[in-house]
Amino acid sequence: MALNPFKYCSGLRVLGYFMILLVAAIIAVSYYAVVVLIWGPQLLHGGLRSVLSISIVTTFHLLLILLTWSYLMVVFQDPGSVPENWRPVMQEENMETSSMALSGYVDPESRNSTASPSEGGRQAVGYCSRCQNSKPPRCHHCSVCQRCVLKMDHHCVWVVNCVGAQNYKFFLLFLLYTFLETTLDTLVLLPHFIKFFGDAKSRSTSPVINLAFALSLICFLIMHASLLSSNTTTIEVNEKKKAVRWKYDLGWKKNFEQVFGTKKVFWFFPLFSKEDLEKITALHGLDFPTRSDVEA
């Protein structure tokens, strides 16, 4: 009997639940150090010190809310899965669907399996032998989740979920706000950290933890910013290197809008406008526009 190493990947889901507890513990330690222990008590001192304390505590809570909101959205938002018996609509079927739309009727199956007219009705469709189903472009099978994920970037043990088409924005915001929060914590606790060995009563390891997180996150942020600007997932990096022109790279602005939407007011929040969800097909993970100078 052949050994299947992927069956052990499901154990990563158990590890993921511990990682969620670790995230909560780090947030709790930071909150205690910044708000309860150091800057909270100084709110009543008056003067410039009190004004500085109000600014720090307010900024801390604002970032904490955005961080937690983004994190929960990554954890609970489905990254996107392939509809059962999904298949792309060919050009002839697309024309037939358009005719039926004019008459007021559209086949429900056609709604769930669309191809962009700009691609000439052709899509790079694969097939997953494990799921026994067709795979849309940029879709990959996750051995941990045991299913195909739309525009899969990677499986993240920190969120016990895959990062894909429908939660990639939330993941990026989580990285951004975590980096800003940990950087803020490091800066405001720096004087306290300098006195680490001088005052035994006020010792805290929070500055060390936050500094380590901030340094590790900056590299991760830079990497994903580069991937975002070229409309590439982590899985597609090697595929892109082999291509003369990356067919999904439509320019940094359009690439950004395929993940964050076109409404600027929603860019910094883990949600999308109704208009973007209706117009940007890439957000659903089944259909992606490609460059006109590259064969799809």
UniProtKB/TrEMBL annotation:
The keyword Acyltransferase applies. Keywords: Acyltransferase, Membrane, Transferase, Transmembrane, Transmembrane helix. It comes from the Eukaryota. The chain crosses the membrane at residues 15-39, 51-72, 170-190, 211-228. Its EC number is 2.3.1.225. It is found in: Membrane. One of its GO terms (cellular component) is membrane. Residues 127-239 form the Palmitoyltransferase DHHC domain. It catalyses: L-cysteinyl-[protein] + hexadecanoyl-CoA = S-hexadecanoyl-L-cysteinyl-[protein] + CoA. It is an enzyme of class 2 (transferase). Its main location: membrane. It holds the Pfam family DHHC. One of its GO terms (molecular function) is protein-cysteine S-palmitoyltransferase activity. It is a multi-pass membrane protein. Belongs to the DHHC palmitoyltransferase family. The DHHC domain is required for palmitoyltransferase activity. This is S-acyltransferase. It comes from Nelumbo nucifera (Sacred lotus). The gene is LOC104604672.
